[in-house]
Amino acid sequence: MRDGGTREGRDGPLVSKRLPVDPIAEAKRQWIAHGWEEAAPGMVAVTSVMRAQQIMLSRVEASLRPFALSFARYELLALLSFTKDGRLPMSSAIRRLQVHPTSVTNTVQRLERDGLVGRSPHPDDGRATMLNLTDEGRRVAAEATAALNAEVFVAPGLATEDTGALTGILARFRRSAGDFDDPAPLPEPL
After folding, report:
1. Which domain covers residue 112, as residue numbers?
2. N or C: which end of the chain has fewer CB within 10 A?
């Protein structure tokens, strides 16, 4: 929600009325009333994260709308913009974005259609494809990042200490779910 009375939807701002009760708290009450006390805390946690994701994604999509980008398209542009020369093997992009290869292929096709990325053969592996950020793609990535930083990331809707605590909790959850491994320590210099 940008203010207390509207939120962004697929077709622009939607009028939103604050509910008189937290529906997740009410769901917890119902869970307990139905004898599912043991599952109630987990249901509350999962449902709360999913609702928070909807709120955050709505803000991100509103910021990206002027650039005609979805978050998936933005992520790929940003990933390419972080590389030294704006190039990355498609297989590396798939691994780093942690999405299904078909989703990345569809995203690449849309970005390619809009002139933001291109594809070329891998210089060393004839079976692989390189993704290449165009000059226009680099410009759009930079402008979209500036908008996201100003409109969402600088003030995500959480106090600074809550942002750090939440990030730590979610990192531990992601690690335990097999999302990533902690990096090995670097060797001592010779």
Report:
1. 71-145
2. C
